[in-house]
Amino acid sequence: xxxxxxxxxxxxxxxxxxxxxxxxxxxxxxxxxxxxxxxxxxxxxxxxxxxxxxxxxxxxxxxxxxxxxxxxxxxxxxxxxxxxxxxxxxxxxxxxxxxxxxxxxxxxxxxxxxxxxxxxxxxxxxxxxxxxxxxxxxxxxxxxxxxxxxxxxxxxxxxxxxxxxxxxxxxxxxxxxxxxxxxxxxxxxxxxxxxxxxxxxxxxxxxxxxxxxxxxxxxxxxxxxxxxxxxxxxxxxxxxxxxxxxxxxxxxxxxxxxxxxxxxxxxxxxx
Length: 271
What we know:
271 residues, alpha+beta, Lipocalin, 5 helices
């Protein structure tokens, strides 16, 4: 009965997550954030479910305040060979205490919907659509910290973009708290930047915004994640991350910020 109840809860939460994905609210969330947060309490062959709230500061002009906050149900599964983490899934090609190499796919909500913008010029731009990214993640763990590398590409041909992410993380324990600060950088190729932040000649003529064709870019960031076990099967988690936008992004007429930020907090229950 307990196993059947677990399956029922997972099915309900999965359907709820899909409804959020296809709704108008879009949160730009990277695989690094998913990987860093979505399995804080999952052990080999176990499920965890929970609820969370994700908030962000987006770079686009005219973003509405209601789009900065989004409830996100959580469904996670972790085994020696496979993981599922709410909006991502992967298969381990190599999984040892010191090294993990996985092939991954994850939902990438890069969408920009002009009709949702408060800015009249932004309303006249083309729509940018979500996609699914696929690639590889490598993690290496030592006493001095952990290294994480991710490379992924657009599988649906929306942007044909490629994104690479490299980070250094230092996990440590403090009582019932597990903390992991880190620093990293993201590389995005010109196709990814042009899809997300570029303005074509036609868009420029319609909107009055200057035509813009960015090249590739590096984007540094700092992050910290925390997990607190307050009962045998219950955990609280939080993660914050701030990205400093490169000139290739900041110079876009679509953008009016120099940083983006994300905060994700929630509670999980492990079966």
